Amino acid sequence: MPVKFADRMSTVHRSFIREILKVTEDTSIISFAGGLPNPELFPVADLEAAAVGVFQDSGPQSLQYSTTEGYLPLREYIAARYKEKKGIDVSPDEILITSGSQQCLDLLGKVLLNAGDKVIIERPGYLGAIQSFSMFQADFITVDLEADGPNLAELEAALNQDKVKMFYAVTNFQNPSGLTYSAEKRAGVAKLMKGRDTLFIEDDPYGELRFRGESHPPVVRGYLDEGGILLGSFSKVAAPGFRLGWMVCGGEMRDKLIIAKQASDLHTSTFAQRVMHRYLTDNVLDDHIEKIKERYGKQRDVMVESIKKYFPAEVKITEPEGGMFLWATLPESLSAMDFFDEAIKNKVAFVPGRPFYVDDSGENTLRLNFSNSDEERIVEGIKRLGAGLKDFIAR
Ligand code: PMP
């Protein structure tokens, strides 16, 4: 019997990246395709000790249903960290714990978007957000992401359109491009957003992974109570398998998000929240983040150096100061999709950039992940890609 699916399913597709990841399950392929943190850096023993401690000290409570808002001590930890690291005053009551920050995108879509509402996203943009908002039949307006942040003239024009519900942005070491908003662009965005009824959704899962250079306060600092919403995650600083993220927002918006979350999953895993909280209080997160930054920083350097050595000069790359990805742009006429098939023959993989563009542009771009391969494999993989690119360009 042919199933009559909901209209919303007609605009979404399986994640192209998940399809690629299937190809790269073959371990002989050096993969720069995934967006995975390095599992060697997961704090397994410390999390194990935290889990045992939670079972011993609060077994029944940790296995019981709990509140939709999330475990209060965990929210207090997050609020204290914002104060310490970013100078932002956030009340634990303004934090909603979610099942990964990906759930924030789904909940925001649920409470905000009617079919045909407009969402501004960066070009290229985070695929998970494109997928989430597409489920609510959003109409995307894209704003070019330049080396130092969004093109402000394009942003202003986009904001001046009707029915624009939100601007979704990844301001630090963006997925996919690795780009970060400069202080000037942050001020420019804040100025453009102020006083409008369009929400600014700032998604920042990578901000703490800065290897060098100065970090910037979030754009929403100073107007969190006026339509700024900040998303965070433990996925990149601790472990993604815990599925723990959060959203900072107050007032009626938070009430609506809580209703949507209740309808969706009642609450995020009580056990996961308590174990993460115990891990965070029994250990020093900054020490762990230092280890991640040291490793990713070296891997990023090796990737950039290898690209400079082995890639044809026509290929341009971003050189991020943090995060997990860098972005390459091939000469205009070339297709990274076509090159992907060639690369797989040479047993190396990346993600072609086109899925990160809602307007089918970006054919000549690609994303390279440096967090999840050791230095030796990075050199070898980039060497193979470089040799392949020289052939591909010469054809
Ligand atoms: N936002 C961005 C920009 C991401 O790159 C990711 C992870 N790929 C997420 C959100 C979702 O992360 P999580 O649900 O694991 O917190």
From TrEMBL:
It comes from the Bacteria. Its cofactor is pyridoxal 5'-phosphate. GO terms for molecular function: pyridoxal phosphate binding; transaminase activity. CDD domains: AAT_like. Pfam families: Aminotran_1_2. Residues 57-385 form the Aminotransferase class I/classII large domain. Keywords: Aminotransferase, Pyridoxal phosphate, Transferase. GO terms for biological process: alpha-amino acid metabolic process. InterPro entries: Aminotransferase_I/II_large, Class-I_PLP-dep_aminotransf, PyrdxlP-dep_Trfase, PyrdxlP-dep_Trfase_major, PyrdxlP-dep_Trfase_small. PANTHER family: AMINOTRANSFERASE, KYNURENINE_ALPHA-AMINOADIPATE AMINOTRANSFERASE, MITOCHONDRIAL. Homodimer. Belongs to the class-I pyridoxal-phosphate-dependent aminotransferase family. This is 2-aminoadipate transaminase. The lineage of its organism: Bacteria, Pseudomonadati, Thermodesulfobacteriota, Desulfovibrionia, Desulfovibrionales.
